[in-house]
Design a protein that fits this description.
46% helix; seven-stranded parallel β-sheet; 7 helices; alpha/beta; Rossmann fold
Length: 222
């Protein structure tokens, strides 16, 4: 099973959620691989620093950096990981201009799309959805399903008309995919690493990740 974390806009927590989901799966004893295709390769660098900081910790899953500049290389990589046992998570770039993205989204099983309740993020998410829709038209074999995650939600904020807009946004986007439970904005999530997940972090993201895992299980049983 291949799950790609993607959106057009950076800064929505895509890399953080990808890493935390890898920690979540590994904690459940599930075989997991993270392929870091983001231009900044944040997960790969964080793994290097985490091991340096905590050399005594077990490494729960592999992190593999991958350059997606060459489309054929990406196509070959996707064919290889589709045959692997376990779950492969891909952290994709926050830009839709790279040709190497095409084989990733065409071959992935699920796309987890984090976004935030603010106009720029919502507009970028709509652009991302249109990108996915065009890929579906161009590549009929594409089977990727969308899972939206509203990230960094602060329950203290949001006037009535804003909350009304958020509800309408979810209703419209639900035509293109399903919504996982929202992830609250908590300082604990900024302290994530690639080796372990804290109780505080787990409490915040578990409802969201349980939902995603259930979707994956349904897919495998179908």
């Amino acid at each position: 099973m291949v799950i790609t974390f993607g959106n057009q806009k950076g800064g929505v927590g895509k890399t953080t959620l990808c890493t935390l989901f890898a920690n979540y799966l590994a904690k459940k004893g599930m075989k997991t691989l993270v392929v870091d295709c983001d231009n900044q390769q944040t997960i790969s660098e964080k793994r290097r620093l985490d091991i340096k900081k905590k050399p005594e910790n077990n490494v729960p899953y592999a992190v593999q950096a991958f350059d997606i500049n060459k489309v054929q290389d990406v196509s070959n990589m996707m064919r290889m990981i589709k045959d692997l046992d376990g779950t492969v998570l891909i952290d994709s770039p926050g830009s839709l201009t790279q040709q190497g993205l095409l084989p990733i989204f065409v071959s992935t099983d699920y796309v987890v799309c984090p976004f935030q309740y603010e106009p720029t993020s919502i507009n970028s998410t709509v652009t991302f959805i249109l990108f996915i829709q065009k890929l579906r038209e161009r590549f009929p074999q594409m089977r990727a399903k969308l899972i939206f995650v509203v990230n960094r939600v602060d329950k203290r904020y949001g006037r009535f008309h804003e909350r009304e807009l958020w509800t309408k946004t979810e209703e419209r986007l639900s035509n293109y995919g399903c919504f996982a439970p929202r992830v609250e904005s908590k300082i604990d999530l900024q302290r994530y690493n690639t080796l372990e997940v804290s109780k505080e972090q787990s409490a915040i993201v578990t409802p969201t990740f349980d939902f995603i895992l259930n979707k994956l299980s349904e897919e495998e049983q179908a």
